[in-house]
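One record is set out below.
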Amino acid sequence: MRDFGGRTDERIAVLRSMRLFSGCNKEQLRHVRSLTTMMRMPRGTVLIAEDTPGQEFFIVVEGTATASRHGWWLADFGPGSFFGELALLDHGQRTATVVAATEMCVLVISRVEFWSLQGSAPSFAHKLLVELGARLRHTDDLLDEESASAWSLRPLAAIGATGC
């Protein structure tokens, strides 16, 4: 694994290469750098535990992580991916468990820093919303597939006016 912690220019180059920060100017990238902590995570580290309070947001620099809910696989996260934003946005519990599938290098942003970033880098906030929308749409698609296979569903019109 490369060492991104030392040189400011190298860390900024890493941030700039990520889709989440690609619209940020150099000043905004310096601000992002000041808000992030680079951490190495050994394989098997639980980064997020389902049903616990969320205090940080993670961005994958190197390596991969796997998300699961109630023991069922949800997603894999690789370089440039992020997770942990939902509990910061709504102050709710974590909705999934995320475990390092390989050795990882991640950027960690605390709740306070996350909110600071929302205001100081508008392109970050926009890209975060776009990704949340895509994840919601994906979840809707999965629910549609699961519902259709679990029950024999009929269109609402076929149920009748009473819904019975």
Remarks:
- Residues 8-150 form a domain with the Jelly Rolls fold (CATH 2.60.120.10).
- Strands lie at 37-41, 46-48, 56-62, 65-69, 72-77, 82-83, 97-100, 104-110.
- The two ends are 60 Å apart (CA to CA).
- Residues 152-164 have pLDDT under 50 and may be disordered.
